Structure formats: structure tokens, C-alpha cells
Amino acid sequence: MEKRKLYMETYGCQMNFSDSQIVGSIMTDHDFEITDNVADADLIFINTCSIRDHAEQRIRARLKEFKKYKKNRPDLKVGLLGCMAERLKEQLLEQEQSVDIIVGPDAYRDLPRLLNIAETGQKAINVLLSLDETYADINPIHTKGISSFISIMRGCENFCSYCVVPYTRGRERSRDPETIIDEARRLFADGIREVTLLGQNVNSYKSDSGTGFAKLLKDVAMVDPLLRVRFATSHPKDLSDELIETIAKYPNICNSIHLPVQSGSNNMLKKMNRKYTREWYLGRIEAIKRLIPDCALSTDIIAGFSGETEEDHLETVSLMKHVGYDYAFMFKYSERPNTVAAKKYTDDVPEEIKGRRLQEIIDLQQELSHKSNLKDIGKEFEVLVENVSKKSQKELSGRNIGNKVVVFPSADKKPGDYVKVRVTSCTPATLIGEIV
Ligand code: SF4
What we know:
Layout: E1 4-10, H1 14-28, E2 32-34, E3 43-48, H2 53-72, E4 77-82, H3 83-88, H4 90-95, E5 101-103, H5 111-118, E6 124-126, E7 147-151, E8 153-154, H6 165-169, E9 173-174, H7 177-189, E10 194-198, H8 213-221, E11 228-232, H9 241-249, E12 256-258, H10 266-271, H11 278-291, E13 296-303, H12 310-323, E14 327-332, H13 340-344, H14 351-374, E15 380-388, E16 395-399, E17 405-409, E18 418-426, E19 430-435
Parallel strand pairs: 1-2, 1-3, 3-4, 4-5, 5-6, 7-10, 10-11, 12-13, 13-14, 17-19
Antiparallel strand pairs: 8-9, 15-16, 15-18, 16-17, 18-19
Helix pairs in contact: 8-9, 9-11, 12-14
Bound molecules: iron/sulfur cluster.
């Protein structure tokens, strides 16, 4: 029997992209094959993000575009997955007539049954959150490239006041370490040369058998010295010296730590319920720089959170200068319904002030990133080749251990190879070099 075709679009964080690989695996086990061509699809899944209002508006716009495919193919089914599905639940079926299936992040095993219901013409929904679902026994379908995600835990219990994730992804639960190490071995045998261990808050990983994140990271690094290991995302309150020492000890654990700070002001950190102070955070940064001097540092920052004063904003600016981040993800505060912040505070920073402050930190980060890259000119780095460079077929691109993109003439190298590159010049975003 000819396989039916599933077209998937994924929005948002790395966790969602990893989940889509799990969904792909479940559906290919149920007589579907993945297609990149929406016009060929029998089934369309959108894995959605709810972190900011803008993310949800993009999904609604996309649904309007899919309407025309449904007109031509009435038997075509459309499913919404992920955080927006979990946040809005039944409301979405009322608001978006073209949607047949609504599924939350913990109910993907139920997709085949929900599709059967939808094929009878009824709407199908499952948004139950689970206390133990980790999809540990499902082999995510790995698409292309030499790097892959491995999701090691699900959910978050930090309840930062602005964040919807604890409501859309539920309580924290960690996968059994053996299943994670097996997956890393399998991926390495399949030619993968870099894995990123994923979780909303990886450093609070704790398996039922008591394995903590530092030990798990070491065990994955021990799979093979040619397998690079990265991880995201860390919460500063759980960043232990033991974890930093583990990163320093194993050459194939990458010297790059993404440590979201969100704000440099203690007043804002308190209102955000981030559970650390500016001083605590800078203490962690100092520990990283002491134990891993060349560690690359990146972060997330919210501009214009409720009640943010100009002084609070300048505290963020001064913290960025003090740390000297290599790069950062920066956003305007977007109030999310039913979060603690939406209930307790007002979104009172005017849009133009949010925009001006955001632009100031973006401009500052551009300077910091360029300064960081300029310091690398003349240095030699081991680069893991990932792709042909976007700019020229004669060039390859890859990343150094600090997660910086490096572009260089290709010689006879290919994705998956490790090459030594000397940096000869740079842009704020890219290092440019030659193989030595
Ligand atoms: S740590 Fe905070 S910001 Fe991150 S997912 Fe959890 S609640 Fe959201």
C-alpha cells in the first residue's frame, strides 16, 4: 500500500525541533512518509511555539495559507502540536476552523488514534500533560547533517513569572541515562559528530537512579572522543562548579555555555522570579572564566519587562559589558496570558521605550560579538565541518569548540571532518580563515 505523506513545519525552540523528530518517528511507524512539499501532503502538522504573541500570530497566518490546500483536497487533515496547542486547547478548534487535530507536547504517542477520529470528520484533541512521559523508547528520525539533538528531560518547574513553558510543557522529568547514552552511540555510528543535550533546564537533570547532569555529560562524552557534546539550556541557579569542572576536563565537551540572564537588575530579576541575583550570576560567570578561560558565553535578555526603569535597563547594559558575551538572544517583553506576571503586574513599559532599549542592547551586543571575533584573528581552532558555505560553493563552514561559525576554502574536506583553521579575518557574526 502506498504510504501517505506527512508535511511538518516546526516553530520555536530546539526542544520543538527535537519533538518533531519524535513525531516523525511515530508517524513513519504508522504508514506515513515525510514530504517537504506541502502540496503533496495528506496530513499537515505544525509544531507550534507560544513564547511570545508574535510566534502565535505567525501560526495563525500560516493556517490561513493552508486553507487553500484544504479547498483543493477536502480529505487533507491539519494538526496543531506543541505549546500553542497546549496553551489554547479547545479554544483553537473554535478559532481555527481549518484545524482537525490539537495535540499537546506530552500526547504525541496518541497521534495515530487522533488521526483516525479526525478521518471520521470529528475534531480530535489530547492536551493531557504527563508526569513521566519522556519518549525515551522512541528513536527520533534524524534528518540531515552531522549534528543532532538528544532531548534528555522535559518540562520546567522554575515558574519564571513571564514564562508559559511550565504551563505548556508541565513538570520536570528526566530520561533514563542509559537510553540517552545508547542514543548517542547510535547517532555516532550513523555518522553524527556532534550532539546537543536538550531540556528547558538541563542542569536540573536528575534520573530516577540519581544520575545528575555533570555525570550524564561525562558519560556521553565518553562515547567517543570524536563526538562533540553541547547542551542547552542552563538555569544559572543550577550551574554547579562540578558541571563547569566536567566541561573543562573533557576536550570533546564544547567550551560554550548558554546562560540566560534575562536582566542585569536585581529589581527585575526578583519580579521575574529568576531565583538569583546579579551578584550570584556574575559569581557563576567568574567561576566559568576561572575554570575555562576561553569559554564562549551567550545569553538571553528581555527588554522592557513590567516596571523596568531606565536604571534597571542600564544595569542590564553594564552587566553585558562586564561579561562580554560572544552572542545573545534579545527580545522585547511580550506579556503572556495566565502567567504570574500577567496576573500580578501590568505591561507598563511603552512599546517605543521597549523598542529603543532593545535596539540599544542589540547594538551593544553587535560590538561585543565583533570585539570577541577580532580577538580570534591569528588564532588556530579545530573546526567541525558542517556544510558548504552559504556564500560560496568553494568554501565550507563549521563551528569551533566555542560555537562560533568559521568559513574557509574547502580543499578536499567534507561535512563531519575535523580541520585545523587559522583565523585571518572576521565579521561580527563569522570568523574567516584558512586550513593549516
Ligand atoms: S527556566 Fe524560566 S524561562 Fe526557562 S522555560 Fe523554565 S520557566 Fe521558562
